[in-house]
Amino acid sequence: MSFIHVQHLKKQFDGTAVIEDVSFELEKGMCVSLLGPNGAGKTTTLRMLSGLMKPTSGLITFEGKSNKEDIRSWIGYLPQYPVFHNWMSGREFLIYVARLARLSKKEAASRADQLLQKVGLHEAKNRRIGKYSGGMKQRLGIAQAMIHRPKLIMLDEPVSSLDPNGRREVLNLIEELKKETTILFSTHILSDAEEVSDRLLLLHNGILHHSGTIEELQATQAVNRIIIEFESHSEQYIEQLISLPEVLQVEPHGDALYVEVNKIKDARSAILQQAVEHHWPLTSFEIGRLSLEELFMKVVNE
Amino acid sequence: MQWMTLFQKETLENWRNFKWLWVPITFILVAALDPVTTHYLPVILEKSGELPEGAILDLPTPTPPEAFLLSFGQLNLLGVAVVLLMTMGIIAAERKSGVTELILVKPVSYTAYITAKWASTLVLIFFSLFLGLLTSWYYVNILYGDLAFSIMIGSFFLYSVWITFVLTISIFMNVFFKTPGLVGFLSVALIILINSLNGLVSRFIDGYPPQINAYIREYVINGSTSGDLWLTLIITLLLIGVLLISSVLIFRKKELAA
Predict the structure, then answer these.
(1) What is the rounded distance in angstroms from the CA atom of residue A277 to the CA atom of residue A280?
(2) pLDDT tens-digit profile of A161-180?
(3) What InterPro entries would the database entry show (chain A) (predicted)?
(4) Which residues partner with B16 through β-bridges?
(5) Which of A58, A144, B40, B71 could form a disulfide with A8 if both were Cys (CB 3.0 to 4.6 A apart)?
(6) Which residues are CB-neighbours of B143 under 8 A, at least 6 positions away?
(7) C-alpha span between B104 and A47 (Å, rounded)
């Protein structure tokens, strides 16, 4: 059941449209990644959903409530570069934010301790935030977004600025949070999107190019691929392959050829027939799909 | 209550960054320095030996009320400057740094956010102003002669209204701009403008806020005031209310992220 509807969202800055007509729905319990290159409008979209920015036009409804109402209690948000009150300790900040979200004193303290444990900041809870590392701040940022048990949490590039260790920690944390709430996170790193999200929103130049699962995205791209590996001299078979009506394009990759085809079924028979007839020295024959990265490039360059 | 959470956070912040130390000390110095140095001026000049041969030093000794009023002269310059300096980033700096992106996506009331900042600063300023005037009053009594304690209390209340007006202007400017320096500059400029129009405006209407300073002078010297002190106070308080409410309304309309 989808509980967030975004309809014809549009945002202009000084007459230039940053977001043009973005519509999508989010389902409860999903982990959705908002994928796009830098400058695609990811941050702007998230800011409009969080209420930090007002859309030029369009409607966001949240369980039937529109963005004209105060929907902030249902939303947790982590900005791309979270800034805290550095003079507070991690625990103080979480309690402060919890109190702002109208949790009682007792609840605020227990929820803060619980989340500090969860994001692995228990040891550092009484240290001033100013002394935290980048990864620790990011984890504290996730904790503060979760503090009031929001129905939707939005994370803006949660792992982009982190080193591999920090990235792993935060990705594991997101994996963990998926069980509790709906997550929408933006990223330009495709493998992260592929790893943790159930669904993709592909944004480029303010236009939503795709919304759905990765499999659906692959299905929309009518291109499929067969990877054929040869013992040696793969180049000499290119001509023959190209001449087949089922083959669209052939690309050499070392001893392998990447063959793009329309219909896997027809192409497979045709190519295998060729191989048998001409005694091709095959070492492997693989049906491959375009990786997310390639799909992404394809959609973006269209 | 959410308002108390915000208020406590501001007070704790002012405590941790030592504002509760340096602001009272500054106000004590600003208020007490002039009455004290004026008293010792002849001695200082004599000891420094810079006077030409045969010059006769004949400085009039101020009366106790006149000496006490010297404090207000300094407060109007330096006290106001301190207030503007310490509040020029009170909202602007938080917006510039991006903390507001974390705080205001929580269900925080904008009214509470602004009024809690306003109130916590007021408490600090009133405390500092009171200590400053108390110290000044103490030295005036020792060095110049008796001055009624009630005069000190009365003038404290009158000046509180003026300094609240100054603070509220700074808050108002904070809502518009994200650069603390610009906020400070524009607040100073506006207050200078308001002050310099005093002579002109007062000729035509009663109740112009800077007139409070003239009433303080009258009150300290005569123990009472002529003219419409109450009108001035009411108008100033109304203006404070209008500025505060518009700050909240404008802040609500602002895009918090840019």
Answers:
(1) 8
(2) 888 888 888 888 898 888 88
(3) AAA+_ATPase, ABC_transporter-like_ATP-bd, ABC_transporter-like_CS, DrrA1/2-like_C, P-loop_NTPase
(4) none
(5) A58
(6) B35, B36, B39, B67
(7) 12
The residue in chain B having the minimum alpha-carbon distance to the alpha carbon of residue A78 is B102
Average pLDDT, chain A: 86
Rounded to an integer, what distance in angstroms lies between the CA atom of residue B183 and that of residue B16?
24
DSSP A104-139: -HHHHHHHHHHHHHHTT-STTTTSBGGG--HHHHHH
Query: What is the DSSP secondary-structure string of A25-51?
Result: EEETT-EEEEE--TTSSHHHHHHHHHT
Type of residue found at B189: A
- Residues of B with CB below 8 A from A128's CB? none
Considering only CB atoms, which chain A residues are within 8 Å of B257? 47, 52-53, 79
% of chain A at pLDDT higher than 70 = 96
Among A195-204, B7-16, B173-182, the range scoring the smallest mean pLDDT is A195-204
Which residues on chain A are in Cβ contact (under 8 Å) with B256? 52-53
**Mean pLDDT of the region A89-100:** 96
pLDDT tens per residue across span B58-110: 778 889 999 999 999 999 999 999 999 999 999 999 999 999 989 999 999 99
pTM attached to this predicted model:
0.85
Q: Which residues of B touch A54 (CB under 8 A)?
A: 255
Give pLDDT tens digits for A258-278. Answer: 888 877 788 888 888 888 888
* Count of structural domains within chain B: 1
Is any Cβ of chain B less than 8 angstroms from the Cβ of A84?
yes
The pLDDT score that the predictor gives to residue A142 is 93
Q: Which of A54, A102, A141 sits opposite B2 (nearest CB)?
A: A102
Cα-Cα-Cα-Cα dihedral sign, residues B103, B105, B107, B112: positive
Q: Is the ipTM of this complex over 0.85?
A: yes
Cα separation of the two ends of chain A: 32
Chain B CB within 8 Å of residue A151 CB = no
Picking from B228, B206, B229, B227, the residue whose alpha carbon sits closest to that of residue B159 is B229
Helix intervals (H) in B55-179: 64-74, 80-87, 92-97, 99-103, 110-143, 149-176
Residue numbers of the domain that contains B147? 2-257
What letter would DSSP give residue B177? Answer: -
Reduced to 3 states (helix: H, G, I; strand: E, B; else coil), residue B214 is helix
* 8 Å CB contact of B255 and A82: no
